[in-house]
Each structure stands twice: as structure tokens, then as C-alpha cells.
Amino acid sequence: MIAGLFVSCSDFLQEEVHTQVSDTRYNTPDGFNEAVNAAYYPLRSFYGTEQGLTATVFGTDTYREGADGDFKYMNRYSNELDAFDDISDWIWQNMYEGINITNTVIARAGAGVEGVSQEEATRRSAEARFLRGHYYFILVQLFGPVHLTTEETEGVELEASRAPVGQVYDQIISDLEFAIANLPVEAEQYGRATKPASEHLLARVYLTRATSDAAGSDDYQQAANLAETVINDYSFELLEDFADVHAVGNERNAEVIWAVQFSDNPLANESADDKNGNSSHLYFNFPYDQEPGLFRTVEFGRPFRRFRPTQFTTQEMFNLDDREVDSRYKKSFKDAFRVIDPGTYEIDGVQKDLAEGDTAIWFPGYNMPLAEQQEKDMQVITPEEYNSINFPPLWKHMDPNRAGVNVTAGSRDWLAFRLAETHLIAAEAYFYMEGPTSVNAIDHLNAVRVRAAWPGEEATVTARTPQALTSEGIDFILDERGRELLGEGFRWFDLVRTDKLLERAKAHNPDVVAPLGNLQEFHKLRPIPQAQIDRTEGGSDAFPQNPGY
């Protein structure tokens, strides 16, 4: 009887009710626009979520695994990274959900919706094409050849096949060119797709296709041209202070070309992630609340430790000499916590009195001798003491506006496209076209580096660029992308695009090699979800798995 009762309760509690929308609803003005808005929703499954960040941050040269979390195999490239991988399945399902909604919008716009003008239908179709191109771009980077459909799904479909990479890129480019031709420079509502957002994304697409099997002869030129258009033809500008780009409350700033929106209204902040909202604030922290003088606060965040910076990130990419002239280490990481629980504590074998507002924890960034540490009235954590629990936390995603200390839902927009990245796209394109002495590449790198410089150090950072680009080549550009875009969901894509994943991850991330890891050449693609293969008529013969899995 007890067993039966529990089963009954479990079934009742897990029951899900889904509202049904009739097919004809999308042929009305309200239903059509609801479908357009819904087409943006799957972006929240990728941006600002543990799944999206795990797929793009883990297993690279800049981030390795922290002490907690369920997806360490993604960092290690171990045998658990297979066709049953939850992360790959999550992204696959949600991207295709987005694609199907966009196909619905495009089909209805093409057929005409009574009460919707042709001008509006074309504009909404352009939004949907921007999104469809975006979803397919994520898929083709992660999985290679994927199922390509531009038709609205109206029933159960069991046939699927893997279109060649070139065909997928052709569709992406076609969609984004349509969006560029038919979208306004400024959206009537913040967050909708725009012409410059489409140009920025297409520049990124050409830059990526240039190193794929489908490379076109003018891909780098196209990427450079589009990036120059975004930089020069609109009102976007690099903020004077790098810290302001990610400042809380300043998400809508002049550097942001396009963002994925979240909300502080719980009813409007639902996401596909079960944590809801933008949960990126959770994953880069460390357990500060276990240290003397501190307890958990909304300001300091929930102390999850999913992603731990590599020694390469903290000590080489942001080396001590560069930190003297480049502000981005100081403005990316939180290197000090103030006392909020005053008292007397034993630290490194010494009794110390901590007053409210004093420094409780300090990450000095260099290996301070123990005797010197003991002279400090604080907990000092040096690089030689960094481990899977204690490390400097990345602070750009933190969200102190959450309703309580245990709330996981964040409300900050995800800054998907910003002008600093546009400059870096241009720099990489010119580097590959014109070589390491390219003045154009140097100028775009220096635009980003000058903004990052401490006041008075601008000449120092610009003087280093030509020599570094000549001697280090694409590695210098990757380092610059690392300093500027750390933790923003680019790194795995960057390393695969430049064919540096194996070299740099193996050199700088101890987890990807034995005994924990096993990074191989085939890991430059993710596994096709087994669920997709199983539900395809013909199974693996019709929808084969990526090699190696």
C-alpha cells in the first residue's frame, strides 16, 4: 500500500500539462507575432546556461573543472562523452526547436497573414531568418553535417539526413543576407534582431567557414568587410573602461550590438534551463563562505565552483608584467573579499582580528612567502595554492540583484555580440589574409588593447602588438581573445576554428590528458545524440554518428 501510494503521488506530481495552439492561430496577426517572439526563446537554452557554457568553456586552454558539477567528462574528453551525452542532446533539441519555430514564421509570412502588412511580414521573416541562421551556425560548429530543413514541421517526421557542411553554411549565409537586406538598423523593441547584428554574425560565420571543409576563396575578405561595416557605419563604440562593459545595470551600453534578454520579472524570466533566467553567475565562483570573516550573501553570489581558470589563464595569459599595463585581469576577476562577519580567526596558524569592512581574502596573483602571508591580517591565497576549490573567481557574470542568497535565476541580459569582438573578428581575418605584419590586423587589435590599458599605458600596449603578432601569430590573437572574452562562451569555438584545440588544451589544461582525460582529434566535433539516430528511419545508416564516438 505504501509503495502504491508513493507511485501514485510521484505520477501526479510529475504530470505535465502543455497548452495546445491550433494551427490556424499562426494565421492571425496575434498568433503570427507570438510565433516570432517564441522563436527567440530557445536562445535562453544556450546563452547564460550551464549547458551552453559547459560546451564552450570546458576542456579548453583557459578553463578546467572545479570541484563540483556533473559534466566533468566534457572537460576531460573521457569515455563518458558519447552519444548519450546530456549536453549535446540538450543543445541539439533546443536548437532544432528554435529552427522549427523560425520555419513556421517564415512559411506563414511567405503565404501572407491577413491583417499583417507585407512590410511587417517581411521584417518578421527577416528576424526569423537571423535566428534560423544563428541556430544552424551553433549546430554546424558543434556537430558538423546536420539535418537541414527549411520547412515547417506539421506532423511526425521519421526521415532525416546529414547535409554536407557546405550546404549548411550556404543556408546560414542566405538567411543572414536576407536579414541584412530587410532588418532595420535599430529595432523597434530592444532585443530584436537588427541589420548590424546580422552583419556581425555573418562576419563570424565567414571567419569560421574559412577554416572548414567548405571554405570559400573570399571568406576572410567577406568577414573583414562586414566587421568594418559594423565598426564604421553605426553608432557603436568601445566603452572607455573595460569594467563598464559588464557592470551591473549597464547591460544596454554603446558597445553591445545585440543581447539575449532576460528579466527581473519571474513570470517573464523563464528559460529552458531548469535554473531559469541567466544562471551564468553560478559557475565561476569559489566557496568564499567557508573562509574566515565571510558568509554567503547575494552580492558575493552562490559559491558554485564549476569552472576553474587554468594556471595558463591566471599566470601566463594575464602574466604579472602585462597586468601592470593591462587592466583586464583586475577587472575580470574578483581578487579580494571584504569582511562581513567580524571576529577573531586562526589563519595560517596565526590568530587574527578581522573587523567589518577589512579585507578577508586576497588573491595577490603571485607566490608570496608564507612568512609574508602571516604578516597580513587576511587570508592570502597564492597561485601555488590554487586548486579545484580555491581560485580567483571570474566576476563579469555576477548578479547581485537576485531576490535571495539561494536564488539561481539571474536577470541580466547576455551580451552575445559586442564591438570588441567585432574588432577581433576583423583582426583575425586580416591576419590570415595579409600575414602577421598586417597593419589592419594590428590596428584592430590595438583598438581593443588601448581600451584595456591602464591610464598612461596606451603606448606600451600598442608598441608590443606588432612584434607579438609577428612572433606568436594566431596564438597572440587567441590570447587577446582570451583576455577580452574570457568566460563569454567563445573559447571552444575559437580553438576549433583555428585548429588549436589539441595543441593548446593539452599544453595548458592538465585534465584533458591521461590519467583523467583523453583529448583526441575527433573531439573537434561533438557526438550526434543517440536519440536522434534512434528515431530516424534507417538508424545509423541514414543518420551516421560522428567518427570516434
Automatic annotation (TrEMBL):
<protein>
    <submittedName>
        <fullName>RagB/SusD domain-containing protein</fullName>
    </submittedName>
</protein>
<feature type="domain" description="SusD-like N-terminal">
    <location>
        <begin position="33"/>
        <end position="207"/>
    </location>
</feature>
<keyword id="KW-0732">Signal</keyword>
<dbReference type="GO" id="GO:0009279">
    <property type="term" value="C:cell outer membrane"/>
</dbReference>
<dbReference type="Pfam" id="PF14322">
    <property type="entry name" value="SusD-like_3"/>
</dbReference>
<dbReference type="Pfam" id="PF07980">
    <property type="entry name" value="SusD_RagB"/>
</dbReference>
<dbReference type="InterPro" id="IPR012944">
    <property type="entry name" value="SusD_RagB_dom"/>
</dbReference>
<dbReference type="InterPro" id="IPR011990">
    <property type="entry name" value="TPR-like_helical_dom_sf"/>
</dbReference>
<keyword id="KW-0998">Cell outer membrane</keyword>
<feature type="domain" description="RagB/SusD">
    <location>
        <begin position="255"/>
        <end position="549"/>
    </location>
</feature>
<keyword id="KW-0472">Membrane</keyword>
<dbReference type="InterPro" id="IPR033985">
    <property type="entry name" value="SusD-like_N"/>
</dbReference>
<comment type="similarity">
    <text>Belongs to the SusD family.</text>
</comment>
